[in-house]
Amino acid sequence: MTEGGPTAALWERDEEVAVVARAVDALCAGRRSRGALLVFRGEAGLGKTALLAAARRLAEARGCAVWSARGGETLRSVPYNVVRQLLQPALVSMHPEEARARLGDGYDVVGPALGIAGPGERQADPQGVCDGLVEAVRRLADGEPPLVLLVDDLQWADQETLRWLTALAEALADLPALVVTAYRPGDAGGETARRLDGVAALAHAPVTTLSTLTPDAAAGLTRAALGESADAAFCHEVWTVTGGNPYDTVELLARVRDSALDPVEANAPELRALKEAGRGVGLIARLEELGVDAHRFAWAAAVLGTGVTVSLAAALITVGHAEAVRLAQVLREARFLTFADPVGPDSELEFVHPLIATAVYESIPDAMRRAMHGIAAALVTGLGLGAAAASRHLLQVHPDDDEELVAQLREAAREHLAVGAPDAARQCLERALAEPPAPDTQARVLYELGCATLLTSPATTIGHLREALGTPGLHGDERVDAVVRLSQALLHNDQLEEAVRTVEEEAARHPEGPARLRLQAVQYMWEGIHAGESAAPDRSERLAALARTCTGRDNSERALLILRGFDAMTRGESADEVAAVCDRALVDGALAPGLGWTDTEWGLELLMMLASAYPYADRLDRAEALFTDALRAYEKAGWSGGHLALAHAYVGLGLRRRGRLIQAEAALRESLRLAERVGRGLPLYWSATCNLVDTLLARGHAGEAWAVAEQYGFAPPYPSTIVLPDPCSVRGRLLLAVGRVEDGVNELEAAGKAAAARGHHNPVLVPWAADLARALAAEDPGRAALLAADARRQAERFGTDTAIGEALRCAAALESGRRAVQLAAEAAARLERSPCRYEHAAARVEYGIAARSATELERGLALARSCGADGLAARAREALHTVGRPGRLPANAPGATARPVDQTA
Questions:
Q1: Which residues form the Orc1-like AAA ATPase domain (predicted)?
Q2: Which residue among 180, 254, 456, 567 is the one 20 to 30 A from 750 at the CA level?
Q3: Rounded average pLDDT over 338-350
Q4: Average pLDDT score over residue span 578-604
């Protein structure tokens, strides 16, 4: 701003300043103060920067720590640029060990994004980095003065910063920090505009749109700058010429003062010409008057952007340091640049206003601007800052078949992916294709582009990978990797049948060997998680035959063993065989190298199939170890997107099977919270929802389960991938529990037909038959008996205590008298050996009711309470009230009639 600018720009801003002052006061009221977000918006020159300067003064006067940053028009492709400006200074001022201690486990996740640590070896999870940066603010604010974050020109912030700011705003309820932002809505479009609207929607006070000055304010400002002698006509013309824009008004009055123009009506016609010298062509004409060298120095500052030093600008236009200092001073005197005194080679330069920076940058001839960006890229690289730092300049260089530039852009993309910035990587690779790369390199660039967009845009990934595979250049393992990636993208885009066909066709092109075996494994994997009915009839037999030849000597063989174990589990084959095959896929009881949770060659689907085969085979110890390892691995790696959501879902599944229902509910709700950020409708979303509904039903909270189902769309059509447990069966049970018996019966019958078509006969995984038998017991006892008998046959074939015990529970519910008591006793005894404590509790209660045994009811009640099964506990207490406590009535009354069994049990 020019002299008097900050004060001048705050004319008629009393209300806005008061909003900031109240927010600062609330922040400083106590250590338990809640954070807040304030959003100011308005077009260029309306005083947003001055308002943020006022916020700084207010906050510093109250003893707050104030961190500030601003977006840059030429820096929008630099990931985490704005968040780095905010957080990096505080961390750089610390000793490295202190910074590591303050950030804790998140240091390795956010350190690379903030530029204080080198990137890791693998691609970072963007959501994990975003969450880590929010936590970094929390940790840095802990124990410090109240924290105020100021962000100007948010319309030019990078996409990674905008995602982070949205997440930070959502966390401010328990984070004592005030965030004040300002942006120009007219300069934002597309994804940026959408994200800005999202940020504005989270503001803790009404979003303020700044208005222009009134004629009275313009007159007051004119007289404050030029003296009380300025007449009314002259003052009114100042307002007319500037449209009440505070920046234009201040700049115009500065030029009036410089020209010694008398502020009277006769001179009012001169104002329009003076105003035009402050913007556009007039501004550039004024710059040209300062001389060629000053003009070029201003160009250099505009090309280099935020954080440019005198010496860097000097290097860009090849002048000495002394001359650069002189040119910087010339530009300051002409109100183009500003910097702190004394000026030296390391002094940071900044344009007086972003409007000036934009005008200067756009005035550079296209060819010259591109050439200067090329030189700037070389300077940045020469300083050892890396390809990613140079990439914003490389993106602007004119395409010219430069293989070295293609290599630099590919390296920059790798560095961007390593810090969790896939959008920046995509821009680099798309620019590399425009160069274009040499024919033998183009396929690799397309493949890398497909990998960069896999997490953010499966549909785009499909196009890139198909083009890569259709372009000569990918051979051997690279081609196999590309085909597998393509199949993953097709899977994530809900094109599962095409994913299967893609790997099947590629496998047919390869001779027997590791590559073919890997492709076959991927094919069986996608077929194995397909919920449709299109799998080949002999698929399981072929898979079993192939797995019998595998000893687990490499990861392709281990993958086939996992797939065989999962398939056998879903089909309800011997649980002992399921566990034995899965165990052969492990190395000393652990995942093999290259098959870890964060390894990307095979993807998490394979490991989830392994881990989920165990709990349904009553090997909960092994399942829980794998689920817990997944959770820890993703948290350590900072992966807090879909991977972490699935990990929490499967931890919840393990807890549900174990009978720890309260803990299971907590894990599943956390999974749903994470899944919401990834997007509804994805398989991981269904996993969390289905298991939460199942858990709430086990707890006896049918109403809450129904509310969850309604809120999250847990209803047909179901996803094309398998969800555990079977969602159709769970929804049928839910409908019965809320009294919609006819709908529930129809849903369970549909579940039975779908399971039969897929060959899924595991009665624990797909429990439709037992639930349907109970529902039909009164109106169609014959069919109910047939269903129960079939469920028992399937359970005995599978062979686990849980499956057999649950089948016996169902059979007991359909009987009466001594037969009911006998079956209930057998169910309770069998489930006592099962690791599934909830099912054991239900069996004990049902046995107590059938036998009128207070002792058994007491045991069942204690188990139900320990599980968190409130409905089952209430049922046990009600039965105890009827039967009496131990000693009051016979523990086992022969001939007693069994009561109807609660569907939620």
A1: 12-179
A2: 567
A3: 87
A4: 91
